[in-house]
Specification:
- The chain is of the alpha/beta class.
- The chain has two domains: 203 residues, 3-Layer(aba) Sandwich (Rossmann fold); 94 residues, Formyl transferase, C-terminal domain (Methionyl-tRNA Fmet Formyltransferase, Chain A, domain 2).
- The chain contains nine helices and 18 strands.
- Strands 5-2-1-6-7-9-10 form a seven-stranded mixed β-sheet, with helices on both faces. Strands 12, 13, 14, 15, 16 and 17 form a six-stranded antiparallel β-sheet that branches. A three-stranded mixed β-sheet has the order 8-11-18, with no helix packed on it.
- A hairpin with a 2-residue loop joins strand 12 and strand 13.
- The radius of gyration is 22 Å and the shape is elongated.
Length: 326
């Protein structure tokens, strides 16, 4: 029997999974609708445009709902259409109890961490910023509480030494497809072996803010490198040199001691900009000034002078992870 699936998502990270659901439903399931967030103002002209998920769905002629908040209308439609299961990834809205209970096979969610670690709003960026060498996508059953549902399976992804949040996001997006493919049969049969999470091992991450891009150079170079790499491109880490804010990308921690005050430029050449920290030297390989492009250090330094002794000012770094919800 062909099962009916509804997909709910709003962020480009969910595009590979949506492509799969649309193109390869065939003899197991049919994607009958997509639910996404409403069109929002974008670009310089601030014209209302659909997000990447809604745009793809509409281009493919899929029935697309874009409610401000999913509720009674969507529930009644699912009941009338006899939808069997909901699949969610990066939707951005809470799904209420009545809607969760509507499909007989419930709702499953793709969460971009190895649960129960990094429950919450910024699992990818926070995992990289925290120095993890591995993360993943967890296929879980949805509950009302945030990311607490039992987990069926995980697809793991390695994090390289200078991988950015954007790099890891791309890898995790691709990881959703094999994860879903190997579990779809048991999900649709209703006998998927979900395993409850261990709540005592849970950690939480929060929605990021622009001020999270501040850097406290009194902490160690490794902490700073992870923070810079993880928070690229959003919110992006920066320092202040004179009156100029410089955005930083592609950072490495050098196991070298320095007698200079934290934040001081120790060296600046074609290989990078080297800054003193509370422990070790921080190497920055790409930089960007206001109105400019992100450039390798060699090109950047041709148009912006940084010399040994210059000081990069920063600010307080707020915690990104908590053992309890923020």
């Amino acid at each position: 029997m062909l099962r009916k699936i509804v997909f709910m998502g709003s962020d480009p990270i969910a595009l590979p999974l949506l492509h799969y659901l649309h193109a390869f439903g065939s003899d197991l399931f049919e994607l009958v609708a997509v639910v996404s967030q409403p069109d929002r103002p974008k670009g310089r002209g601030r014209h209302c445009r659909p997000n990447a998920i809604a745009e793809f769905a509409q281009q493919q002629g899929l029935l697309t709902f874009k409610p401000e908040q999913p509720g009674k209308a969507e529930r009644l439609w699912m009941e009338a259409e006899k939808v069997d299961m909901g699949v969610v990834m990066a939707y951005g809205h809470i799904i209420n109890r009545q809607l969760l209970a509507t499909p007989p096979l419930g709702f499953v969610n793709m969460h971009a961490s190895i649960l129960p670690q990094y429950r919450g709003a910024s699992p990818i960026e926070t995992a990289v910023a925290s120095g993890e060498t591995e993360t993943g996508v967890s296929l879980m059953r949805m509950e009302l509480a945030m990311d607490t549902g039992p987990v069926l399976d995980v697809e793991k992804v390695s994090i390289g030494p200078v991988d950015s949040g954007a790099d890891v996001r791309t890898a995790l997006a691709d990881a959703t497809v094999p994860l879903f493919k190997r579990n779809i049969a048991c999900l649709l049969a209703g006998n998927a072996p979900f395993v409850e999470q261990e709540p005592q091992l849970a950690t939480y991450c929060r929605k990021l803010k622009k001020t999270d891009g501040q850097l406290d150079f009194t902490v160690g170079a490794k902490v700073l490198a992870n923070h810079i790499n993880g928070l690229f491109p959003w919110p992006g880490c920066y320092c202040i040199v004179g009156n100029t804010q410089l955005k930083l990308k592609c950072a490495r921690a050098m196991d070298q001691a320095s007698v200079h005050a934290p934040g001081t430029v120790v060296r600046a050449d074609k290989t990078g900009v080297y800054l003193a920290t509370g422990k070790g030297i921080l190497k920055i390989e790409q930089l960007q000034r206001p109105g400019g492009k992100m450039l390798p250090a060699q090109q950047f330094l041709q148009g912006f002078i940084l010399q040994p002794g210059d000081v990069c000012a920063g600010g307080e770094m707020a915690p990104l992870v908590s053992p309890v919800p923020f």
